[in-house]
Design a protein that fits this description.
With 258 residues, the chain is α+β, with helices and mostly antiparallel strands. It contains eight helices and eight strands.
Length: 258
């Protein structure tokens, strides 16, 4: 096999499905090659040397050979297994949600070092035990930055006036962020945004993860910002993430057990 066909890269498995009797096709996320499809031949056989190494929710070092339809996985080594993020079902479900957002926002074969570093760091935070909601909001806000659709939270998206703390606000994702009380738009009972939620949105844009982890906020504010960011990404990516249904089900089950 000509050496020019071979390459080695860091990778995170975003999706995978069984193919044929023993193969598996995966979507790999790599920093230099972006998103790509690869096939692991014979990986589902008991004696496969690739075996359990080609797992999602871990950082891998993968050797591939370029192919006509799919690149072929020839070797794999687990660099960072991030085992602790799998200890909690909510953490695992959150990790799958973040992976789906990455998959939706990526084009195939386009360099994506910034987004790769973002997903990798989010998995490190989940593995370290940071609150899953805080990790998700931090990731969503930074993902919007990487996509070039940073939400506007300082000025009115319509008139460009600086927002004032004593006025009312509306969150309007199709316009790109916050609408002031003076500009026409959806009524406050449908799109209203509290001052505390606006402050938290600003915090997710400006604070590092250590500062975000230390914040103490009412659950109602956290839920308001979660809904706001979900709405924003739904508009930006043109549909909801499928994994949200599972994540929400896991969270409801956890609350009912308390």
């Amino acid at each position: 096999m000509p050496s020019s066909r071979l390459y080695v890269t860091d990778a995170i498995v975003l999706t995978r499905f069984d193919y044929g009797e023993a193969d598996r096709i995966m979507t790999l996320f790599t920093p230099s090659h972006g998103k790509l499809k690869a096939i692991a031949k014979g990986v589902r056989r008991t004696k496969s040397r690739l075996g359990g190494s080609l797992e999602p929710l871990a950082e891998l070092r993968v050797a591939l050979a370029r192919g006509r339809t799919f690149d072929v996985v020839t070797q794999v080594q687990v660099s960072h297994p991030w085992l602790r993020l799998r200890d909690s079902l909510e953490s695992t479900a959150t990790a799958w949600y973040l992976a789906e957002l990455a998959d939706r926002s990526l084009e195939e074969r386009h360099e994506a070092e910034g987004l790769y570093a973002l997903l990798r760091h989010a998995y490190e935070l989940l593995d370290a035990g940071m609150d899953t909601g805080r990790v998700a909001r931090w990731y969503e806000m930074n993902l919007a930055d990487e996509m070039g659709v940073r939400p506007e939270v300082d000025r009115c998206v319509e008139c460009d006036r600086m927002l004032e703390a004593d006025e009312s606000f509306r969150w309007v994702p199709p316009l790109g962020g916050v609408l002031c009380s003076r500009c026409p738009g959806p009524p406050a009972d449908r799109a209203g945004l509290s001052v505390d939620a606006l402050k938290l949105l600003k915090a997710y844009q400006r604070l590092d993860v250590e500062a975000l982890a230390a914040l103490r906020l009412p659950p109602a504010v956290e839920r308001e910002v979660e809904a706001a960011m979900r709405d924003f990404l739904r508009v930006s990516l043109e549909r909801d993430a499928r994994s949200l249904e599972f994540l929400d089900e896991v969270r409801r089950a956890a609350r009912s057990d308390l």
